[in-house]
Amino acid sequence: MKRYGKRKRKTGIALLIALLLVFALLAGWAGFSWTDGNHLGQAQSLAQNEENERPWYLILVNKDHPIPDDYEVNLLELSNGEQVDERIYPDLQAMFDSARAEGIYPFVAAGYRTHERQQELLEEKITAYENEGNSRSEAEKLAKAWVAVPGTSEHELGISVDINADTQRCSSDAMYQWLAQHAWEYGFIYRYPQDKTQITGIINEPWHYRYVGKEAAKEINEKGICLEEYLSDEE
Ligand SMILES: [Zn+2]
């Protein structure tokens, strides 16, 4: 009886060791996700830990938040020569496909812009206001309501697009309406609404859409808030 009992204990220990090994292997395979609760939480905390930044699609750029000097963009060229960040392309294309299926014909009139191009645009606008008889400082003030100061334009990120309608096939108003209703489904927001100009510092631009990812776009659309408000709630 004694020998039998001893053998049973040994078998028990061997089983325990085997179980521990299996557990260790599973834990390793799962990337230790049990410490973070889930994979999504792990991905988010990793993204936030890296220089304490938000995910790329939630970067805030406005007059008070210039683009970081080390910002990098991987561009993809559209068929009309405009360029966008390659990461927004699949959702942008899906949005345009859906619009076309409903008789709406959008195209990207302006995508990525270099810092130099933004500077040129601002200068052109200032000159136009000067030609209307405004002083240089007045012209600058007026121009800046229309054209973002270089370094503060979302177009320099490559994740914002000015969308125009192919007016041979549909009206601009019909397209703006379609975008206002559906863009959020593809992760894009109507970035500068009429009732938020005090916060955004930019006049109403029904053509300017900004990629923020589907989760944020849904919430921003549901709450009727702008990106600045969404991001300040988050903090
Ligand atoms: Zn724009």
UniProtKB/TrEMBL annotation:
Q: Is the keyword Transmembrane helix assigned to this protein? A: no
The name this protein goes by in its record: D-alanyl-D-alanine carboxypeptidase
Q: Which PANTHER family match?
A: D-ALANYL-D-ALANINE CARBOXYPEPTIDASE, PEPTIDOGLYCAN L-ALANYL-D-GLUTAMATE ENDOPEPTIDASE CWLK
Give the species: Catenibacillus scindens
User: What stretch or stretches form a coiled coil here?
Assistant: none
Determine the domain of life of the protein's source: Bacteria
Database matches in InterPro entries: DD-CPase-like, VanY-like_core_dom, VanY/YodJ_core_dom, Zn_M74/Hedgehog-like
What the entry lists under CDD domains is as follows: LD-carboxypeptidase (cd14852)
One Gene Ontology BP term is: proteolysis
Q: Spell out the molecular function terms from Gene Ontology.
A: serine-type D-Ala-D-Ala carboxypeptidase activity
Q: What class of enzyme is it?
A: hydrolase
Q: Does the keyword Calcium apply?
A: no
Going by the UniProt record, its keywords in alphabetical order are:
Carboxypeptidase, Hydrolase, Protease
Entry EC number(s): 3.4.16.4
Gene3D superfamilies from the UniProt entry? 3.30.1380.10
Where in the numbering of this chain does the D-alanyl-D-alanine carboxypeptidase-like core domain appear?
A: 83-214
